[in-house]
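I am writing to request your help with a piece of structural work I have in hand. I am sending you one protein, given as its amino acid sequence and as whole-number tokens for its backbone shapes. Kindly check, if you would, that the fold set down in the tokens agrees with what the sequence suggests. You will find the record immediately after this paragraph:
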Amino acid sequence: MRTPSCLHTSFLLGLAGLLAVLAGAPATHAQTNTLADGPEVPGWLTQPLSLEDALNVALAQNPSILKSQKDIEATHGVMVQTRAVALPRLRLMGDYSFNSGTESFAFIPGQPAATFQQENNWLAGIRLEQSIFEGGRMRSAFRTAKHLQEQALQQHRGTINNAILDVRTAYFDTLLAAEQITVNEKSIALLQKELEDTRRRYEAGTVPKFNVLRAEVQLANAKPKLSRSRNSWRIAKNNLATLLGYNLPTNIWDNIPLQLTGKLDRTPFEIDLPNALSQALQSRPELAVIRQSQALTREEVVSAKSGYQPSVQIFGGYQGRNTGFQDDLGIVVNGWIAGAQMNWNLFDGLNTQGKIREAKAKLGKTELEEADAIRQIELEVRTAYSSFIEASEVLDSTEKVVEQAEEALRLATSRYEAGTGTQLDVLAAETSLTEARTTKNIALRDYSVALARLERAIGMDYATTPASP
């Protein structure tokens, strides 16, 4: 019996390494299907594909997951920018100017005048600056970077779980389509056998021509169902291949040669609704993302309030320039420089006040978003739980139907052969058997999908513990 597992936070932190390993392994699976004169199909299309294999391939190749990884990389860049306010800055300075408006002054009458500014001037130096007080903005920058990282990881985790749910659903849909082909092929085989038997009876003169026509009509009506099930199978495989990020060769025809090894079956799962709700509120990444947004908005308030405080920096470096008393640019005046500087906006036109009001309004909005998200998640869990109960009950009701339908067909055939039954009874029993098999397959698929959605609703991480059907 599988029960909900706790969240694996270390999985997210080590996801890059996991994906690198998966990317280096053989990724995809199916049998060959090529044009007669075309190139060979890649080897990854010639291997069987289990559900666990499909989930691993999705982790490495699903487009949504890959795009989410790029979002994490972009977030890392934002984190670096955020922390920059608290880190030192090393600047290389250089300046050259020409000014023909120079002044000269003779200190002693009759002596040459002294010039205090030359026409050509240059300055160069290197300077290290470090902020030592920003009104609380520096410590806030490090907290903000941490919240950004956690928010990005939680968003990525949600993307993974959504993508894996889509892959599981598509895998089950493909299995259902394949089972429906088998059901319809069996139905046609039974109807074909019935038609042949009726023709022999007609040739022997024991049944009228009408019985043959009725058997032919019944067989003809069953063939479109087989065509539709084959089309559903082709479409389901295309959908699954797209979710797995397969780049299919152009020489593959409409029937993608995916060969699935899983089967539709009931996987035991038990959880009561209160525990499901509790786990969802603790584990759902959507809530974690909103809570990190709240923390980020609180840091925005801190950053906005820092506008009321002074900004203080210290600096030190080395600087050189030309002398201001002679025209020779090669005469250099240089030396070490050090100092401190402060900027304090005593009045900034209410800019700081406006930023504070904006940040506080955003914070209030995130609090409302959290309350609404909790309600939506609880509704999702209740809906998924109810759908799972329904799917379980429907599956229970179909457990014995196929056996009963097979027995009914056997009895109808025996009675017909003994002359105590009619052909209509046999055809009706064959139709009922087909419907029973179809209903059971659909019930198995609905149960598997309902279970996958319930697990997603309560916040289980599929990527860490994928479930095979």
Notes: The domain at 9-61+134-309+349-457 is CATH 1.20.1600.10 (Outer membrane efflux proteins (OEP)). The longest strand covers residues 120-133. The chain has one domain: 9-61+134-309+349-457.
